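Why do we care about 3D structure at all? Because function follows from shape, and shape follows, mostly, from sequence. That is the central idea of this module. The next example makes it concrete: a single protein chain, its amino acid sequence, and then its structure expressed as tokens.
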Amino acid sequence: MEALLEWERAGGTSFHTPGHRQGQELSHRVAALLPQRLFTLDATEVPGLDDLHDPRGAIAQAQRLLAQEYGADESFFLVGGSTAGILAAVLATGGPGQKLLMARYSHRAAFAAAILAGCKVRYLPERWGGDGLPRGPCPEETAEAVRKWRPEVLLLTRPNYHGIAFPLQGVVHACREVGTVLVVDEAHGAHWQAAELPCALEAGADIVVQSAHKTLPALTQAAWLHHRGGRVDAARLRDALRMVQSSSPSYLLMASLDAARWHLGRWRAEARGRLEGLRRLRERLEEAGIPLLPRGLAPGWVHDPLRLVVDAGAMGWSGPALAASLREAGIEAEWAEPHRVLLLLGLTPGPEEEHLVQVLLQIARGAGEVPGGADRGGYPRLEKVMDPAGAWWAARESIPLEGAAGRIAADLLWFSPPGVPVVVPGERWTHEAVTFLRRCEEVGVVPVGWPEPARVRVVRRG
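And the structure:
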């Protein structure tokens, strides 16, 4: 950040990329809409600003400060979100024919990584709580699978989109016994270490990827990756990052990451007080009759206090209806499911938080609404019959959805959020999955990646 501001103060004239030339090439209409400084600071690899792909100056120093903040051996800025980090982590630790054990309830980037690396894949099934929220794979079963299958890489998501995290210690022990590299997608937990929540790096993960923009004050798309210990080839990891990240990284994104790291270091001193305030906020809402999730977490499981999951169905509302009511009051929720609404609270309380509380209390005192439309239900569980890479590269054909049962999927279909695929290349379509997609259409929720209505792509026979 300091290097970028110093470069701005120097006031040079641009005869280099980007093409807007520090805002000089903008039309008057565009210049009137967007701040000039946005373009002035949109720099490139000029002397003094370093190079993300060969950092030796300001970027190298910023990444060292980031590693110190998290206790990592090395940390890297990501300008392609956690997606870039997950791709690089798998490419650096797995490869064609090598074994990748991963949670089936993972972000679509994990499946993209498996396809690009050409790994042999096995999936860990998701466990669900009685409250309808995913809990993650069973830690004991995960540790047992590591010992029996002895994969090169284990890829887990923790915490999940709803903020739930399972205990990791037994899994770490199993990985170290057999030499498996543990990669954790901690996209939603960049703030956990400062909040003294059980983060994956401290638990012993080898590589941890975090979306700084999700919970910290960084620009959208800004993320980072940490590694620790001697089980990762650091040079190979750097090479993989160069492969998957833009050769023209945004200095605005990198500066925002540097600022977010600085902010997090200072927030650490306030974290305990903030967590206590969040505990009182939850008690206040629950005492007023607003049901919150998750319920019934087993010992060792943890929930992120910054994620407020409202059980809309128990209030007599559908999730979308409750989110719409909040929107009318000027509050935009993170996500609305058929019977739940997810709201993200900030690191620091503000007047908008009390406004949220008052609106929820007012809604709770109302008559409520009967949940409308059919719940799309839990994801269908499909059988894996091919590795994702094999199905992705195989010859494919488009067929009517009604005839898909029994065929091998070539599509990657997902909902965003949370970005978890409903169908993965290499899985066998079932009647249940066909019915599920039809039900999604009925409630107006169509997965991303569906090539055309009423048709899907499958592996060609013969």
